[in-house]
């Protein structure tokens, strides 16, 4: 059987060299600087961000590098190590939402979003070269790594001053989100961009997506040093086809909003807070009472997922802080089962990968990200990530599925300037 492949993270020296060389070849001059931004895995709290709920991402060591130089005109030219030597060119002047096709929509969208604000009117065009080790379509936010690295680079070269503080970075999160939602047409709820710009090394970011909170109150950092606890986090990209653009994500999002309206609240978060304020043994009844008011079976299941999942985030933070790894793992498992049965966003590859990880001794395993393909994570004892990944690869091979790829991951630093 084929040996499981691990995707190495592109280190800073190699990343800087690759994008600088590509920039020189494509544009015949030196970039003004090099920046990078990480992909993310969400530990728990899935499909909660757009319900004003809680999530808990870490930043990956796998990052996207950008070499950038501002231009005097409004032209944007971008190239990537994956674009086969092809430079995409777009003029920012007169650009409207949705105008840019293909991957250039992401970096161009960031400059476009900035120019639509009162602080960004001075933003002009730029040349940029990208290289990345965040797997594409793996549910690990390669798009956020691209928009967030671009946002930080533009913030820096135009002296906008947002990148230097965590509070300021919330503005860059908004720019990156607008690029993805409005220019690329990908609905995303803010988890990915916040992770890429606000996570800290060694820490998990508890992100509260209640829009009423200030930047400072919306996050807290929680120790996630696994080696100290003799643990490892396996991340495994199932290589099942993954897309947020086929309407499944949007339709779930809409149903959550409609259900909140039908239940007389602004967002499902309000109800989650009511439920989670109760003693644990009363929560299931409280949820049953709420969902009984909804008409469709589908809405009942979706709402049950969101309400239980928000509770699991706080429970996980507490269990992990107390060193209760068994309980932390159980919460991973409960999250996956809820995403499979109630939110219905898993695919067979995700379910099988999770099952194998559990059978092979993971404390817990779950899909991470939006679902419909993408990656799983498993909390395992040190030294177990590789053999468990191999078992999953063997099972995939037996079933005739694409070979999965694994990533060795520790909680890493947020978007930064590296050159
Ligand atoms: C995708 C979206 C995020 C979030 C997750 C599900 O990754 O981009 O905003 O909604 O799905 O938790």
TrEMBL record:
Its EC number(s):
2.7.1.6
A Gene Ontology molecular-function term? galactokinase activity
What would be one Pfam family of this protein? GHMP_kinases_C
Q: Which residues form the GHMP kinase C-terminal domain?
A: 317-397
GHMP kinase N-terminal domain boundaries = 106-197
NCBIfam families linked: gal_kin (TIGR00131)
Q: Would you tell me the protein name for this molecule?
A: Galactokinase
Q: From which organism does this entry originate?
A: Alloscardovia omnicolens F0580
């Amino acid at each position: 059987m084929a040996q499981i492949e691990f995707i190495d993270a592109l280190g800073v020296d190699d990343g800087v060299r690759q994008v600088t060389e590509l920039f020189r070849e494509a544009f015949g001059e030196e970039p003004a600087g090099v920046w990078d931004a990480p992909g993310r895995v969400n530990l728990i709290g899935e499909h909660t961000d757009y319900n004003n709920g809680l999530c808990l991402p870490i930043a990956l060591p796998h990052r996207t590098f950008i070499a950038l130089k501002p231009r005097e005109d409004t032209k944007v030219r971008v190239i990537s190590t994956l674009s086969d030597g092809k430079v995409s060119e777009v003029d920012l002047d007169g650009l409207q939402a949705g105008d840019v096709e293909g991957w250039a929509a992401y970096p161009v969208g960031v400059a476009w979003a900035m120019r639509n604000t009162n602080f960004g009117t001075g933003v002009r065009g730029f040349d940029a070269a990208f290289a990345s080790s965040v797997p594409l379509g793996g549910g690990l936010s390669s798009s956020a790594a691209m928009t967030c690295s671009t946002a930080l680079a533009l913030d820096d070269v135009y002296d906008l001053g947002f990148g230097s503080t965590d509070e300021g970075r919330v503005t860059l999160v908004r720019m990156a989100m607008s690029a993805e939602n409005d220019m690329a047409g990908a609905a995303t709820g803010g988890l990915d961009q916040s992770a890429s710009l606000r996570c800290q090394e060694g820490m998990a970011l508890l992100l509260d997506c209640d829009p009423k909170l200030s930047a400072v109150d919306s996050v807290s950092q929680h120790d996630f040093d696994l080696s100290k606890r003799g643990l490892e986090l396996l991340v495994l990209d199932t290589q099942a086809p993954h897309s947020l653009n086929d309407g499944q994500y949007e339709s779930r999002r809409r149903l959550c909003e409609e259900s909140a309206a039908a239940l007389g609240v602004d967002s499902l978060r309000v109800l989650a807070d009511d439920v989670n304020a109760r003693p644990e043994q009363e929560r299931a009844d409280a949820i049953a009472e709420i969902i009984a008011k909804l008409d469709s079976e589908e809405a009942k299941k979706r709402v049950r997922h969101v309400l239980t999942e928000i509770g699991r985030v706080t429970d996980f933070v507490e269990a992990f802080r107390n060193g209760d790894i068994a309980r932390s793992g159980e919460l991973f498992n409960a999250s996956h089962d809820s995403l499979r049965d109630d939110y219905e966003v898993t695919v067979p590859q995700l379910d099988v990968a999770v099952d194998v990880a559990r059978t092979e001794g993971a404390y817990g395993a779950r899909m991470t990200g939006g679902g419909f393909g993408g990656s799983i994570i498993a909390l395992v004892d040190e030294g177990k990530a590789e053999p468990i990944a191999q078992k999953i690869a063997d099972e995939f091979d037996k079933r005739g599925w694409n070979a999965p790829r694994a990533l060795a991951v520790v909680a890493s630093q947020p978007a930064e300037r590296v050159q």
